[in-house]
Amino acid sequence: MASSNGRKATEIFQGQAILYRCMFAFLDSMCLKSIIELGIPDIIHKHGQPITLSELVSILNVPPARVGHVQSLMRYLAHHGFFERLRIHLEKESYALTAASELLVKSSELCLTPMVEKVLDPTLSASFHQMKKWVYEEDLSVFDISLGCSLWDFLNKNPSYNELFNEAMTRDSQVSNLALRDCKLVFEGLESIVDVGGGTGATAKMISEAFPDLKCVVLDRPRVVENLSGNNNLTYVAGDMFKTIPKADAVLLKWILHDWADKDCRKILENCKEAISSNNGKRGKIIVIDMVINEKQDEQKITELKLLWDVSMACAFNGKERNEEEWNKLFMEAGLQDYKISPLTGQSRFLLPPAIEAQAQVASPLRPCLVVPFPAYANTSQ
């Protein structure tokens, strides 16, 4: 039977399911936030083995009337891959950590809890309720509308948020650096490198430890680097990438360009070219680590993540994630050319989507500019 709009009932029900799934998607984040606040990943980790529901609610001191509700929470998150549901003796249900929930264990070196806390902070996440107004307000982000200033200015004015943001980015770098460690050929032969917008230096530290003779410089906002100390081959410099970038053999832009519109990216890339081309005539390299959207080749979940991140960058910074065609256009407009796509693989069993390489047109010959797409995802074929 068809409805008044000509669609079959089955089509309408399918549409309703899509609508309701999106409508309730905010609960994904709230469920995630709740298990962090309850400390459930840490509880299971300390337990040392799968934990039964009765053991979990006992440790949490949950009222009897809420036991079934905790079970619903755990069942839902298990369905989404945060826990593994197991059956042990006497048919008792138990839960074990998965690769996703292990990233929420606070004692882990790869803990991403600060990233979740940053994204789901009520003050910051509430800004996204301004998306309708944001559509009509040229050049304003949702933070400009909601907080009266950009996120960067808000962080400068609020030290506690600035600390949370820096910790979140540091933790995220520790995870993404797992893939970067297998790209050591990118850094071989270099004598100096500047990590532009490198935050507290998690990535630069990894590079400096792998290459003790490589001089690493982290360039970031004064508020970020003012109290940081380096070592023999790692230093911190307060500055503005839109004004000048220290001279070096190479410039690293990790998760930087997606924060900015094309016109701003062109300025950053031009300053990068100046930094490497004026370094005593040495050959230079620009290294960019960012997403490359590929809806045809990426797995559905990877594509969904990239498209969500694109919306997030647009709302938060008027930035964007780019597909290969958009990277090509950006490079061409910044005076970069001759790019090619090549996959990167590593011993850590990570497979990164295709990388973009481009060579800059400047007076001195340059090594390729490498764009390493993010996120990395498991290579199950190995």
From TrEMBL:
GO biological process: isoflavonoid biosynthetic process; methylation
Domain O-methyltransferase C-terminal intervals: 128-336
Reactions this protein catalyses: a 7-hydroxyisoflavone + S-adenosyl-L-methionine = a 7-methoxyisoflavone + S-adenosyl-L-homocysteine + H(+)
E.C. number(s) listed in UniProt: 2.1.1.150
Matches recorded under SUPFAM superfamilies: S-adenosyl-L-methionine-dependent methyltransferases, Winged helix' DNA-binding domain
Residue positions of the active site: H258 (proton acceptor)
All copies of domain O-methyltransferase dimerisation, residue ranges: 21-107
Domain of life (superkingdom): Eukaryota
GO molecular function, one term: S-adenosylmethionine-dependent methyltransferase activity
Keywords: Methyltransferase, S-adenosyl-L-methionine, Transferase
CDD domains: AdoMet_MTases
Protein name (Swiss-Prot/TrEMBL): isoflavone 7-O-methyltransferase
Species in which this protein is naturally found: Glycine max
Highest classification ranks of the organism: Eukaryota, Viridiplantae, Streptophyta, Embryophyta, Tracheophyta
Gene giving rise to this polypeptide: LOC100776336
